[in-house]
Amino acid sequence: AMAGVVVTASAGGSVVGSVTTKADGAFQLGPFEGGLDYEVRAEKQGYNFVSDGEGGFRSVRMGDLPVTCVDESGAAVPGVLLSLSGENAGFRQNNRTGADGAHSFTGLEPGTYFLRPMLKEYELSPASQSISVQEGTNPVVHLRAKRVAFSVFGFVKGLDGRLDKHASVVAINSAGSTVETASSEAGGEYRLRGLKPGEKYSIQVNTAPSAKHERATPAAVDIVM
């Protein structure tokens, strides 16, 4: 028996009756007008209900999946993209860890789930894993993040000294290949991500014929990460 379950009857899209179960789990609705088709639903946070075929309901307690991510120093890592898919091909959720490096997937039906974390410039461990969520259980996933690449920040200004937005800035490696591209924001700032330590890069404003700018000073800034 379960208390606090809201049982609602509706007909033609309109609610015609609602009641909350007591400690014995029993409920009674009606009387209702004859000649109509009625839909009766049971709801309680954290549970899924299915009809038992005899006018009642069977409850399935949903599970939660808390996920935390820290770096090698133990500091929280925010912004990690968590892609969770289920054995049911129609289930997929994508969320990011918050400022505390954590996120909790809630209301999961019992079953097997597949978690894949992603964050540019970081190597995440485990890179993927299969997780079994049993009825009413809350398995906790702990992720470790190791930084394997870095970013370059800067500003672009026009000849009049004003900060320039929508400028295309590129990072070119020692082989002459463009490996990262960024556009300056409204305040002229840009960020080139994913640059590997120990590598030499040439940071340039894109002056290709199709680009916004024809020339830039300096033409390039060489750096070693």
Automatic annotation (TrEMBL):
Entry-linked InterPro entries: Carb-bd-like_fold, Ig-like_fold, NOMO1-like_9th, SDr/BOS_complex
Keyword Signal on entry: yes
GO cellular component assignments: endoplasmic reticulum membrane
Record's keyword annotation contains Signal: yes
Upper classification of the organism: Eukaryota, Cryptophyceae, Cryptomonadales, Hemiselmidaceae, Hemiselmis
Any GO MF annotation of the entry: carbohydrate binding
Domain NOMO-like ninth beta-sandwich: 3-51
Alphabetically ordered keywords of this record: Signal
Protein name: NOMO-like ninth beta-sandwich domain-containing protein
